[in-house]
Design goal:
The chain contains four helices and five strands, in the order H-E-E-H-H-E-H-E-E. By secondary structure, it is of the alpha+beta class. It folds into two domains: 94 residues, GMP Synthetase, Chain A, domain 3, CATH 3.30.300.20; 30 residues. Strand 4 and strand 5 form a beta hairpin. The chain is elongated, with a radius of gyration of 27 Å. The relative contact order is 0.12. Belongs to the RbfA family. InterPro entries: KH_dom-like_a/b, RbfA, RbfA_dom_sf, Ribosome-bd_factorA_CS. This is Ribosome-binding factor A.
């Protein structure tokens, strides 16, 4: 008998969570008509050990609509649970709880700030390199300028 690194129940919860992720994404895309939802990506689903609850994390294409989409999805959670029950072969369909995950949006904003800071530093370094001190006169001169 092969040894498993994780308890069998944990692996099943992962498999069920992945199936719920795919099915919920399809249901939101095809069946939810609320304009507040817009374009979202279902990132992850965490199912409780007893399969009674599922936390669904998503990201919105437009970051400013994330919290509105969360409210709309939690409002549609009962409908989505019923539709999900028709697709899954489980004794009990978990209650769905939606959470907006803005990690990627914040990461992109942070990357943009870092890129801007690097570009600013490079520009400052280029200006410093273009200005040199003339040792003889002690006068600052710019490269390429006519020498006296």
């Amino acid at each position: 008998m092969p040894q498993h690194s994780r308890p069998q129940g944990f692996a099943r919860a992962d498999r069920v969570g992945e199936q719920i992720r795919r099915d919920v994404a399809m249901l939101i895309r095809d069946r939810v008509k609320d304009p507040r939802v817009g374009m979202i990506t279902v990132l992850d689903v965490e199912v409780s050990k007893d399969f009674a609850h599922a936390k669904v994390w998503f990201d919105a294409l437009q970051a400013d609509q994330g919290l509105e989409a969360q409210e709309a999805l939690n409002h549609a959670a009962g409908f989505l649970r019923r539709e999900l029950g028709h697709l899954l072969k489980l004794r009990m369909t978990p209650a769905l709880h939606f959470f907006y995950d803005d990690t990627q949006s914040r990461g992109n904003a942070l990357s943009a700030l870092i890129s801007k800071a690097i570009a600013s530093d490079r520009h400052a370094d280029e200006e410093d390199a273009a200005t040199e001190i003339d040792d003889v006169d002690g006068v600052a001169s710019t490269k390429g300028a006519a020498e006296s």
